[in-house]
Amino acid sequence: MYSLDEKFRKLVLVCTNNREDGRECCAQKNALEFHKKLKFTVAAVDPRIRVSKSGCLDKCSTGVTVVIMPDNLWFGRVMDQDIPELVKLITS
Q1: At CB < 8 A and 24+ separation, what contacts does 84-87 make?
Q2: What does the alpha-carbon distance between residue 78 and residue 25 come to, in Å, rounded to a whole number?
Q3: Residue 44: CB partners within 8 Å, gap ≥ 6?
């Protein structure tokens, strides 16, 4: 194991978990498309912020779920219209 250089100043996780047993999940709520839109928008403002897909964050009933790290801010029921507000929080 070795330490990696820090490239990003923040990490944003977007749950894209897909439960194949039919239980409620973020993937059913258009999480993949939301991730693409948020990633593109954030990258245009600050390329030092990484927006990544995540597996289950254990909040499927409140999906789509977004976590901003290292701020430890969690948001549920996120939709496309929330992107401008999220970008402000993420890039601050």
Answers
A1: 86/38, 87/38, 87/41, 87/42, 87/45
A2: 13
A3: none
Q: Could you give the C-alpha distances from 57 to 3, 5, 44, 76, in angstroms and in order?
A: 25, 26, 26, 11
Distance CA 9, CA 1 (A): 22
Q: What's the CA gap between 54 and 84, in Å, rounded?
A: 21
What residue ranges define each of the domains in the chain, with the CATH number in brackets?
A: 10-91 (3.40.30.10)
The DSSP-derived string for 27-86 is GGGTHHHHHHHHHHHHHHH-TTEEEEEES--S-GGG-S-EEEETTTEEE-S--GGGHHHH
pLDDT at 61 over 80: yes
Q: Give per-residue pLDDT as tens, 13-52.
A: 999 999 888 888 899 999 999 999 999 999 999 999 999 9
Residue found under tokens 């991730």: 35
